[in-house]
Amino acid sequence: MTNILVTTLGGSWQILPELMGFTNPDLVDLFKHHPRIKNIEQERQRHGITPVDELWMVTTYGEQTNKSLKTAMEWYEELATNTRPTLRIWQVDHTNNLATEEECRRMCEAIHTIVFHARHCSKNGNLFLSLTGGRKTMSTDLQKAAAWFGCEAMIHVVEDTDKAFELKVRDWPVDSFVKPVPKKFGELFTPFIVGQYAVNPILSIAKSGNRALSGGVNRYPVPYTSALKPVNLPVDLSFPLTTTLEKLQANAGYLMCNYTNTMLQGESQTNFLALYSLPEKKIEELKRWRMGIDPAKEEAELSFLEKLPKAELHCHLGGVANVHELIRIASAAKDDINSHADLLEPWHKNIKLLITLRDVGKIKEHIVSLKDVGKPAQLSGKVPSCICTASFILLFKDAPELLDEVIYGGYINEELFCGVEFNVYEKLGDLQGSGLLTHPLCLREACRVIAEKAIEHQVSYLELRCSPVNYSLDGNLSSKQVYEIIQETLAEYQDRLYCSIIFIASRHGDMKSAERHVDLACEILDKEGKTGNQNVGLRGFDLAGDESACKPSEMQPCLMPVMERCLHFTIHAGENQPVKNIWEAVYHLNAERIGHCLTLNENPELMERFLDRNIVLEMCPSSNFQIIGYRDNYYPATNHLTVYPLKEYLEKGLKVTVNTDNPGISRTDFSKELHRACRLTPGGLSMWEILSVIRNSFKAAFAPRHVRHSILRKAEESIVRLLQRET
């Protein structure tokens, strides 16, 4: 590994100790007494400045340059021979004052060639370039070369010219620059980093088909010497390297377009288009970087996934809260609970005692089931169901871990929370949903919980599914008021989170409830259609619940009014039922997206229709693992289970998205869900695949077209910045 610093040299030889004082302070501690030495040290650390092994100089011929060069070599000989970097000096043939166009062109070719060689020689190390030294045209040439070949840091050193003139710094003896600048002159020179450059991706794109580049540095030879003397650098007057680069620049658009098309043709999934402009090496790294294989790496992998922008398409309001959030939501009803304290206290008394004893078994016996908490016999008709539920939850305010045990029991062990079937899973959410959200303040707080959780995990677009009719059953609110509360609360976060609302009609409930949701949707669409686009609005309709209770085709007459208004449709299908349900959702309800879709691979012809119509799959790895049961890379005990079909769908080219479903019930979050998708895939998922899944989510959003385009572009920009910073 070789670290190289390339600089130009003009009339001032002092730039060498100034640069060495920054990159190699153990050799030349020039800035020891600088008043901002801590800032200089932080600058070194922030940009990964490590001591250079070789110092390369490019300069002209001419009396002033030769004089400066002679002194520079005298200074170099003052340095400790066993620790000083190798010094290489090239004087460009037929250059003097760079006063003609031809001289400037020669220097430009020479600088590009030298930087090209330095990039090659520092392949596994760092390349630093210096803007200090020589004429302005030489600094410009270095910047142009950096834009092509890249550098880890572009270094500049500024001089207090007035003080330098007063002190006659240029006349100081050579040995003054092998030790720290005296403290009283500490701020005479100040080094800093002006930029960092990645290798221009056009280079890697062009190499395969370009003879002028495929031969690498061998096509542009330069003379090397280890002796302490300058080497003459002849320049071919056809300027082969800069001419080639100029042609590449002129054809960059064509090259990039052709390269991107070639890559897209070889992939089953389209990724963020900006990623195809990354260097080929970086793209290969993203394809090799896999997650979800090694439990020891889980924390670091989750930390990175949390930083990625996300879109969430399948999240139920009635299942958003973990126990801590349940207590927060229930606390919103505290005043109403207090107003019923006399009636509630006799019922609470025994439960409080059991909580004190931490007897989970007895607590479960006492309440019979979580659903019964909202309707204790002794309080029937006296206290609203939502107050009973909220008050029960608040009994665990100081013991949330106990409430966790009451709800989940052995399922707290993630490995055991596998294949429990739909009915068991659904009961785990009995303390939230309609049991709690019929209280207006609890409803509002639940919306805040999911919005804040989304923002915490860099979710910039959220589709929230809800059943307003179900939350109006206690008579506290009308279904329209429920919708307005959800809409208004989510709008509080619109500067950081764009939200859409999706109504859910249930298959297994009273058909009249589904009809009321349809009527409410039509009423809202009529109103919002007249008032223009809402920041948070009704964007879609969903059919959910027990698939075996009612086929999608049987629901078509009920759903026709919202279909006629061209509302987006997403249908739960193929979660735990045959692929026939998916077929009906597509052909009878014209679904644009399918929730879960786990049995789609039973019908290859239908998979082809998904591809033709760009129908999107909303997969929910955690709830799928918990309800159905799939193989997990972290749990050898699951090796006998079926392989999760997500990777198969991706390889077929299907538009797969990853979602949380019920983040509170499933004990997951938006970042963990992406990681669980990796864990359920044999061999894990690559970062390239993860990013394509994220892109699918933004592309499939039910947001208005202009919003969808905007959030996609912002996500793309954020991802590219993150990858440049952290990988």
What does this structure look like?
The chain is α/β, with parallel strands linked by helices and 727 residues long. It has two domains: 4-238, no CATH class; 309-320 and 436-721, Metal-dependent hydrolases (TIM Barrel), CATH 3.20.20.140. 46% of the residues lie in helices and 14% in strands. The protein is built from 30 helices and 17 strands. An eight-stranded parallel sheet has the order 9-10-11-12-13-14-15-16. Strands 6-5-4-1-2-3-7 form a seven-stranded mixed sheet. Helix 21 links the parallel strand 10 and strand 11 (498-506). The model has no long low-confidence stretch (mean pLDDT 91).
TL;DR of this structure?
The chain is built from 30 helices and 17 strands.
Summarize the SSE layout with pairings.
Layout: E1 4-9, H1 15-23, H2 37-46, E2 54-59, H3 63-78, E3 86-92, H4 101-121, E4 127-130, H5 136-149, E5 151-159, H6 161-167, E6 189-197, H7 201-207, H8 211-214, E7 231-233, H9 240-250, H10 252-265, H11 280-288, E8 290-291, H12 298-307, E9 310-316, H13 323-331, H14 334-339, H15 341-357, H16 360-367, H17 385-394, H18 400-408, H19 422-427, H20 440-456, E10 459-466, H21 479-491, E11 498-506, H22 511-531, E12 536-544, H23 552-564, E13 568-573, H24 580-587, E14 593-596, H25 604-613, E15 616-619, H26 621-627, H27 646-652, E16 655-658, H28 670-679, E17 685-686, H29 687-699, H30 705-726
Parallel strand pairs: 1-2, 1-4, 2-3, 3-7, 4-5, 9-10, 10-11, 11-12, 12-13, 13-14, 14-15, 15-16
Antiparallel strand pairs: 5-6, 8-17
